[in-house]
Write a structure and sequence with these properties.
alpha/beta; 29% helix; Alpha/beta hydrolase
C-alpha cells in the first residue's frame, strides 16, 4: 500500500499500484477511544446493552504498514467508516444486529507481529464470550480489509466484505473456506491493487470460499468519489450475507460459482450489475 500522509486531510494520489503486486500501505489507522459514532467495540456495550444480538457486524478501518505507537484519539481512516456504520445500522434496524468496531492497539500492521490481526481476533473472542455463538460479518477497509480476511477463520465469522483491501500476494486464503467473501475495489485506486483483490477472490474460491469481486469504476481508495454507492452496496451485502434481505442477483450468482472457476464470472462491475454510471 502507498502512504496516506495525514490524519486530517486526504493526500493527493500517488503513482499507480503495480498490477498484481501490493505495495505497502502507510496511512493512519487508529480508532477513536469512544468508538465509531459511539458504537460499542469488542465486548463493549452500547445502545441495546443487555440484549443478546442475533448477529454482529464488526468494522475495521485502515492503517499503516508499520507503526508501534499508540493510536491517536481521532483520525481520517476511522472517520471514513462512520457513514458505512450509519448505512449498515439503517439497513439492519429491528433485526437485533449489534454493530461494533475494532480498536487497534498500534497504528501499523508491523510485519510478522500482525498487530491488527491480533486485535481483531481478540475482538472476536470478546464477542463470543459476551454473546455466545452469534454469526459475525467483518467489514474492513484497506489494512482493515487485510485483517478481516486473515481473521476470517474464527469460528464466529460467516462473511467478509473488503473495501479496497490490502491483499499481499503471499497472504493465506485457506482460512476463508466456507465463508462468503466480497471484495469491493475502485479501478482508480492508487494505494492498494484492484487486481490483487480479484486474484485473492479467485484464490479463496479455489480454497473453498464463496467469493466475488466488484469493481467500482471512477472512485478512489478513500471511497470519497461515488461514496453513496459504496455505502449502499456494503449495507446491502451485509443484510444479504446475514439472510435479512436479497443479495444483488449478480453477486448471489458469483458466490455460487464452483471452486475451480477462474474466469471473469466472479469479477463484477458495479455499473453493469446496477445500470449506474460513474
Amino acid at each position: 500500500m502507498r502512504t496516506e500522509r495525514a490524519q486530517d486531510a486526504e493526500p493527493p494520489p500517488g503513482a499507480d499500484a503495480t498490477p498484481g503486486a501490493e505495495p505497502p500501505e502507510r496511512h493512519e489507522e487508529a480508532a477513536a477511544p469512544s468508538g465509531l459514532d459511539g458504537l460499542p467495540r469488542q465486548g463493549g456495550r452500547g445502545e441495546g446493552a443487555g440484549k443478546t444480538p442475533r448477529a454482529v457486524v464488526m468494522l475495521l478501518h485502515g492503517g499503516r504498514e508499520a507503526g508501534l505507537e499508540a493510536p491517536p484519539p481521532w483520525n481520517l481512516p476511522g472517520l471514513r467508516m462512520r457513514p458505512f456504520g450509519r448505512s449498515i445500522a439503517r439497513a439492519t434496524r429491528g433485526r437485533d444486529v449489534r454493530l461494533t468496531a475494532v480498536r487497534y492497539t498500534h497504528r501499523g500492521w508491523n510485519g510478522a507481529r500482525e498487530d491488527p490481526l491480533r486485535d481483531t481476533s481478540r475482538a472476536l473472542d470478546a464477542v463470543a464470550e459476551e454473546y455466545g455463538e452469534v454469526p459475525v460479518i467483518l467489514v474492513g477497509h484497506s489494512m482493515g480489509g487485510r485483517a478481516a480476511l486473515r481473521a476470517a477463520g474464527h469460528r464466529l465469522v460467516r462473511g467478509v466484505i473488503g473495501l479496497a483491501p490490502w491483499c499481499p500476494p503471499g497472504d493465506p486464503v485457506t482460512q476463508l473456506s466456507g465463508r462468503s467473501v466480497v471484495l469491493l475495489h475502485s479501478d482508480r485506486d492508487h494505494t492498494t491493487s484492484p487486481l490483487a483483490s480479484q486474484t485473492t477472490a479467485t484464490r479463496a474460491r479455489r480454497a473453498g470460499a464463496r467469493t466475488c469481486s466488484v469493481t467500482i469504476r471512477g472512485s478512489d481508495h478513500a471511497m470519497l468519489r461515488r461514496a453513496p454507492e459504496w455505502h449502499r452496496l456494503t449495507a446491502e451485502l451485509v443484510t444479504g450475507l446475514l439472510g435479512h434481505g436479497p443479495l444483488p442477483p449478480a453477486v448471489g450468482t458469483a458466490l455460487a460459482l464452483p471452486p475451480g472457476t477462474t474466469g471473469p464470472e466472479g469479477n463484477l462491475d458495479l455499473d453493469r450489475i446496477t445500470g449506474a454510471r460513474p
